[in-house]
Each structure stands twice: as C-alpha cells, then as structure tokens.
Amino acid sequence: MWLFLAFLAVPLIEITLFIQIGGVIGLGWTLFIVIATAILGTYLLRQQGMRTLEKLRTSVNELNDPTEPLVHGAMILFAGALLLTPGFFTDAVGFSLMIPQVRSWMFQAMRSRITVSGFATGPQHAQRQAQRPDVIDADYQDVTPDRQEPKGPSGWTKP
User: Fold this and answer.
1) Would you list the domain boundaries of the chain?
2) According to the model, what pLDDT value does residue 159 have?
C-alpha cells in the first residue's frame, strides 16, 4: 500500500513543483537545474560510492560486520537513481541521502527495528560448528568404479 501511494504521490509532487518553479524562473533555468543536478549527482555517486566500497573492502578484510557499509552503499545507489530522475523533489531526497550523517541516522533508525540473531564468517564459524554434537566433520573420497564398457573400434582406423 505504501509503495502504491509513493508511486502516486511522487509524480504529482514533481509535476506541481515543475509548474510552480518553472513559472517563477522560466523554462530554460528549470531545464538547466534539472540537467545540472543530474551531472552533480553522477559525480557525487561516483565519489561517495568509491569511498563506501573501500570501507566495505576494509570491513570484510578485517572480518568486521559489513552491514553498515552495505547499507550506505545501497542508500548511495538509491540517491544516485533519484538524482538522475528529473525533478525537484527527487533531487532534494537524493541530495539528502548523499550526506553521510543523514545515511548514518537512517541506518541507526533501521537497525533499531531489526534484530540480528547471528553473524559469523571465517574460522570462528567453523569452530563453533565443530563444537556441536550433531555435526560430523569428515573428508571423503569417491571410490565408485568407472563403468565404461568397451564399444569396439571407433571407426577412425580400419583393422
């Protein structure tokens, strides 16, 4: 239901803003602002995306929880899509998501609503699994014989 309302409300807000702002500053300036925000949004998307990707890489290499960099990356991607979408409302939301403090605040708000039951990677996870009595850790080797029956000459050579 919320998604339907968003798909209905956002275009109506954009059309209203285009008419109101375009009437005040004119068509040329309105188009210039829309194109300029798309170019600026692309630049910010690349810059902040690379920075977040590096934080994600560091987090994974140090075996830390990568949740925050992943969520920041998703928000930056969403902000970039909003900034490439023509409109004043979507640009305002997109630019606000490009501010790291806003993303952190949104991440904390989402984190307070989500309960993580467990997170494990690497050797610690394997050690924890090995301590369970219902888990058997074993190696195996397949010893099934090949069942290839002789088929006769291939036909490439004559006897």
Assistant:
1) 35-113
2) 56
* 3-class secondary structure, 116: coil
pLDDT of residue 141: 80
Look at residues 77, 31, 28, 88 and name the one whose alpha carbon lies nearest to residue 50. Answer: 77
Structure tokens given for 125:
């996870």
**Does the global pTM surpass 0.85?**
no
Task: Enumerate residue ranges in the chain where pLDDT < 50.
Answer: none
Residue 52 is encoded by which pair of tokens? 């977040």
CB under 8 Å to 58, separation ≥6 — which residues?
64
| Rounded-to-integer distance, Cα 7 and Cα 81, Å | 15
- Structure confidence at residue 97 (pLDDT): 94
C-beta separation of 63 from 121 below 8 A? yes
Report the alpha-carbon angle 118-121-124, nearest 5: 90
Residue type, 15: I
